[in-house]
Amino acid sequence: MQKFIVRRLLSVIPVLFVVSVVIFTLLKMVPGSPAATLLGDLATADDIAKLEEKMGLNRPLVEQYFIWIGNMFHGDFGISTAGGEPVASVVFSHVKPTISLALYALIIASVIAIPMGMLAAKNKGTGIDHGVTVLSLAGISLPSFLFGLFLMLIFAVKLHFFPVSGYVEISRGLWPHIKSLTLPAVALGFMNAALMMRMTRSAMLEVLGSDYIRMAKAKGVRNFVITTKHALRNSLVTIITMIGQSAVQMLAGAAVIESLFAIPGLGQLMVNSVGRRDYYVIQAIVLLIALFNVLINMLVDLLYGVADPRVRAT
Question: Any idea which fold 95-313 has?
Answer without folding.
Answer: MetI-like fold (1.10.3720)
